């Protein structure tokens, strides 16, 4: 098990990790998620004793990494697949690591087979593709047959077959009772690989829960209804009926209605009673990616100026019961970066916040909600990430 308690790391004025406490348990694949620069690699380096915490501590199997007897046989890690001597063959690279830890050469050939590099074992690694380098890094992590494994972006550069292989490998390692801690930005992959998630933003814990709970806590499902094309009157009629019945209705750019707060059978009945034909009535279940975007969008440091992140516009005043002929609010297509579903009526946590559009996002709807607040309780002595130095400031500090 990996246990972090109050883990904090500062680089000069930059707080990379702040007061992070979590446990990574054996027998599960635990995903480690967070936007760029949120502190994942720094946390992993502290777990592996490569960086010293400014305060707090982290242990593996009850000991700080540096106090572990024969650590390479207890903990294996892939942090940077490029950190190899390119002039050495894959086999010689692994052999040198094995010799340092008293691991027999037979194990080198074994792991080369596990990662599928047996045919190129005697080739210099500088000629390796990104995916082959990842496989070599994974082989190095497996060398000591460790009980605890850390992988920083293990599927980086792998082709679909390689990604599937890593997925199955992670699951198999966890099924063998090992502790598997893996960071990734590939949400679709995490959704099918991880059992548990630790999510951080700006160095602070945002969530520590199962994938299932994370999705249900951070997303809202909705129904999509489409009336016959070329007959906007039907759509307007349906929108009014659904709103009158307590639904929240938004219009997608393609003309479909996105509805929350009403079940599919209820929408169907209301449409039938109103004499509106439906060409589509379908459920939309939130994905891990949507849930993740919704939770972390306020903790993203680096964002393109072209990314307007307009979000949703809540129903405006003219969209009330019985009103006809209004302009329906338009929402982005799904999936879209920055998308998140509307909260139920009366539970809008952004209602009091300054609307994003009012802050000058060009082209944003007038009432677009501000980004959601971080879900973790704000520590009393939290750093001020929003006003803190940017990555480049910190680089300057570090020089
Ligand atoms: N050695 C260092 N000196 C100064 N600042 C650093 C150092 N290492 C990391 N940082 C800063 O700490 C913050 C966290 O970086 P870290 O690499 O841990 O994030 P990350 O979540 O792994 O990011 P990514 O997903 O992009 O790999 C960043 O702002 C980074 O610039």
Record the SSE blueprint.
Blueprint: E1 2-11, E2 14-24, E3 29-33, H1 40-47, E4 55-60, H2 71-74, E5 75-78, H3 90-100, H4 105-114, H5 130-142, E6 148-152, H6 160-175, E7 179-183, H7 187-193, E8 196-201, E9 204-210, H8 211-217, E10 222-226, H9 232-244, E11 248-251, E12 257-260, H10 264-273, E13 280-284, H11 288-296, H12 391-398
Parallel strand pairs: 3-7, 3-8, 5-6, 6-7
Antiparallel strand pairs: 1-2, 1-4, 8-9, 10-12, 10-13, 11-12
Helix pairs in contact: 3-4, 4-5, 8-11
Bound molecules: adenosine-5'-triphosphate.
Adenosine-5'-triphosphate binds at residues 11, 14, 16, 34, 36-42, 391, 394, 398.
Provide structural commentary.
InterPro entries: AAA+_ATPase (IPR003593), ABC_transporter-like_ATP-bd (IPR003439), P-loop_NTPase (IPR027417). It comes from Streptomyces corynorhini. Residues 368-382 have a biased composition (Pro residues). Pfam families: ABC_tran. The chain has 12 helices and 13 strands. The protein has helices at residues 40-47, 71-74, 90-100, 105-114, 130-142, 160-175, 187-193, 211-217, 232-244, 264-273, 288-296, 391-398, and strands at residues 2-11, 14-24, 29-33, 55-60, 75-78, 148-152, 179-183, 196-201, 204-210, 222-226, 248-251, 257-260, 280-284. The strands form 3 sheets. It has a 6-stranded mixed β-sheet, sandwiched between helices. It has 399 residues and is α/β, with parallel strands linked by helices. The chain has 2 domains: 2-216, 3-Layer(aba) Sandwich (Rossmann fold); 219-359, Alpha-Beta Plaits, CATH 3.30.70. Residues 308-399 have low confidence and may be disordered. The protein binds adenosine-5'-triphosphate (ATP). Residues 11, 14, 16, 34, 36-42, 391, 394, 398 line the site of adenosine-5'-triphosphate.
